[in-house]
Design a protein that fits this description.
Helix content: 40-55%
Strand content: 15-25%
Order of helices and strands: HHHHEHHEHEHEEHEHEHEHEEHEE
Strand order of the largest sheet: 2-1-3-4-5-11
Number of helices: 13
Distance between the termini: 84 Å
Structural class: alpha/beta
CATH class of the largest domain: Alpha Beta
CATH superfamily of the largest domain: Response regulator
Low-confidence stretches: 48-56
Number of domains: 3
CATH architecture of the largest domain: 3-Layer(aba) Sandwich
Mean pLDDT: 89
Radius of gyration: 25 Å
Largest sheet: 6 strands, parallel
Number of strands: 12
Length: 339
């Protein structure tokens, strides 16, 4: 049955019937109930495209992500996306993951904005200077940043973790064990989380009066292969560190495999703490000491809630979430090996 037939049966205008079914607040409650009852009685099913055009909505949230083999193997990212998708689906909204090469990422945003296929965006893996966020703000397109951007001055919605506090916890634990030659293996400094975590590491060493060995700091690893190569480089140093903090789980997998392949024993020959751990599907038998954050599932659901609130137009100052990490002790760290 069409809207026209419902309007004729109830003696209402087509506009009033459409507004009643789409939840416009100016429609009287008695009218809305009558229209909904008639629609149910006649098994009326709205045309999703027409409904979206009428409301000026696409009923879709966009996630532009430069998909690489490393990202596809990141179970934590996939869990976050799955939870977001599940929460949006309960509202009749789709999560559209738009793949793009790193060089084409901004162009992918521009195409999506121009096509008006997206109601809002979730922007993952934020950068210190983030052109994506600037672009969305310039076009007045709603978004939620999964992480903050240090250089961005205008207000925006975000969910982030206290990355500096987490790295500080890890470094303090290693210092308390007695380590004084600490290495750092991290993601490129363009990423905001990487800058925050390295800042926490620096603060802990400075507070303890321990100098940072620049040769033992490698900030270039955000996948398994680069994590493996970076750990090999640390092991090859004339005075290798006695402990290493790895600031992301993807590089952590490669780093730990490099240690084991070198015949070293975790926690005895060299102590390692990996931010976010190695994941539940890890084949490493040792329990890895890690900095834990809320589960990917809980994180995805909360990002989805923030995005829905942003689409509803809730005040930006109410759409900030800062989550605290916790240290999860394992077997991969301990006192330094005595000479």
């Amino acid at each position: 049955m069409s809207l026209k037939k419902i309007a004729k049966e109830l003696g209402l205008s087509l506009t009033t019937v459409s507004r009643a079914l789409n939840g416009y607040p100016e429609v009287a409650e008695s009218t809305r109930l009558a229209v909904e009852a008639a629609a149910k009685r006649h098994r009326y099913k709205p045309n999703a495209i027409a409904r979206g055009l009428a409301l000026g909505r696409a009923d879709a949230i966009g996630l532009v992500f430069p998909i690489t083999p490393g990202d596809l193997g990141d179970a934590q990212f996939l869990d976050v996306a799955a939870s977001m998708s599940e929460r949006f689906a309960r509202e009749g909204i789709d999560l559209l993951i738009i793949s793009a090469s790193p060089r084409d990422e901004l162009a992918a945003y521009e195409r999506a904005i121009k096509g008006r296929r997206i109601d809002a965006f979730v922007v993952a893996r934020t950068r210190v200077h983030d052109a994506r966020l600037e672009l969305l703000l310039a076009h007045d397109v709603p978004f939620v940043a999964y992480g903050r951007s240090a250089a961005l001055q205008r207000p925006y919605a975000w969910l982030d973790f206290d990355n500096a506090a987490g790295a500080q916890m890890a470094a303090q634990r290693l210092l308390e064990f007695g380590h004084r030659r600490l290495g750092y293996l991290g993601a490129p400094p363009e990423y905001n989380f990487a800058e925050q975590r390295f800042g926490g590491f620096q603060a802990a060493l400075q507070h303890a009066g321990v100098a940072i060995d620049d040769a033992a700091v490698l900030r270039l690893a955000l996948d398994r292969r680069s994590g493996y190569a970076a750990m090999q480089a640390l092991l090859a140093l004339p005075r290798r560190p006695s402990a290493v903090l790895v600031d992301n789980n993807l590089a952590g997998v490669g780093a730990v495999h490099a240690l084991l392949n070198a015949g070293l024993t975790l926690g005895r020959d060299l102590s390692v703490i990996v931010y976010d751990g190695l994941g539940e599907d890890s084949v490493i038998r040792s329990a890895i000491t890690s900095i834990r954050q809320p589960t990917p599932s809980a994180t995805g659901t909360e990002i989805a809630e923030l995005t829905l609130a942003r689409v509803r137009g809730e005040p930006l100052e109410s759409l900030h979430r800062l989550k605290m990490p916790a240290l999860d002790p394992g077997d991969s760290d301990g006192p330094p090996l005595q000479s």
